[in-house]
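explain this:

___
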Amino acid sequence: MLPKQRQDQIVRALRADGAGGVKVLATKLGVSEATIRRDLEQLHAEGRLTRVYGGALAVDGGDEPFADVNAVHAEEKDRIARRAAELVHDGESVLLDIGTTALRVAQHLHGRSLTVVTSNLAVLEELQNDEQIELIVLGGFVRRSYRSLVGYLTEESLRQIHVDWLFLGTSGVRPDGRVMDSTMIEVPVKRAMIKAADQVVLLADRTKFPGHGVARVCEPGELSMVVTEPGADEATRTQLTEAGVQVVLA
């Protein structure tokens, strides 16, 4: 990978997570920690991130374009999404969070007799012509760059419904199992989604263990299940299991 490509991936990762440690970034990109440190110093000098002790913070440059995020760890996301879709039985109701992994879950639900509720505009586009699926779109303020609906209207809509399954995304899972998010405006919607579901399933690839985020979404005990992949931090997985969460590897 060329240095420019690697540095662009670092910036994308920070925008998605809000912050990143040297060790985590090195693991994500498959390079040495020394290489990451040099990249962070250069990107800091260019004003593309803020260098802090042990890592870096994203600068306030707006949301990461949805298509760019969708291309990161695509195979891993698809395996997780396929496994998540297998949990659902015909006749049940599914609530899909914002984000690219939720979109992939929708792709694996085609042709099934289900009710799907979402604030994810990409999911709307994916399922709108599937006549087997009863599709419900939550109201709200449109975040165009991330193709989602947020705000009071979204939260109020969620207070009026109840579903069998919620598939939830995250910026990261702390070592103690807390679910975090780096986009503050999304957090109230995620919390309302959790209250609206019988089964709360977190979808998180291994790079989210441990992850980053400035706002707490929920405690581990509020989750029913986590669908992740081999390589997710074992200590964090143990914390989740001890909290009564079923951890499924895709």
